[in-house]
Amino acid sequence: MKSNSIAVLMSCYNRKQKTLDCLADLFSQVLPDTVNLTVYLVDDGSTDGTSEAVEQAYPNVKILHGDGNLFWNGGMRWAFAEAMKSDCDYYLWLNDDTLLYPQALNTLLATERRLAEQGHLRTIIVGSACDPETGKLTYGGMVQSSWWHPLKFQLVEPSEQPQPCHTFNGNCVLLPRSVVEIVGNLDEAFKHRVGDLDYGLRSLRQGCTIWVDPYYVGTCPRNINQPLRLRLEKLAQPKGLPPQEWKIFSSRHAGLFWPIYWLLPYIRLRLLSALGRED
Predict the structure, then answer these.
(1) Cα(205)–Cα(255) distance, rounded to whole angstroms?
(2) How many CA atoms does the CB half-sphere of 221 hold within 13 Å?
């Protein structure tokens, strides 16, 4: 049987126990001996001892040390760049708050091979995550959900067969070398948000396909929606929706009328604030 190398890309910041739990499930995957995992973990300046704990528990993890200004997209981009130097067969994006089921990687690999046999040679396989308490879908592949709004997406529930989608959350995503050779790395224009959405949309334009795996791959609770006041305060911060980054995303993916879609989220928040309402 052919051996396969998988580079696992992760970025973390001050979530030591979550990072350790994620790695524990990753290294407990039920995989054939022919699959080799190499983890590239960017610790973006954690002060809670994350790097030291990971190094002690998993000495083979390649730890890259950031200065606290990388955020998710910057950290994942650095991990991706380092991993690409080894020319791996597959690259797995994995959020450190996502806990994988034991067969998760086997499932993703089997789906990619199955689609390849059907003639889909440049496929991205998206793993869906559910809430650990309710079992409801929280992150995964997405399709455009509005005929008039090109930047409005909804999650795709896993079903018995792989389903095509338009883009994805970056919680658990398997990319074969054939995709990475064409699409390359995450875009440095984004610091935290929308870098994963942008990667998916760019992949489609370059002839790749994106599929939602038939099975849930693990659990990940949904980030709690913050009160309107806090969202307004953080709007221009890296974890918010910085206007320049959203402008790049909108102009790239929203078509001729992109200025309208660029302004819509800011107008909406301001209107809700003026009316004294929460959405």
Answers:
(1) 13
(2) 6
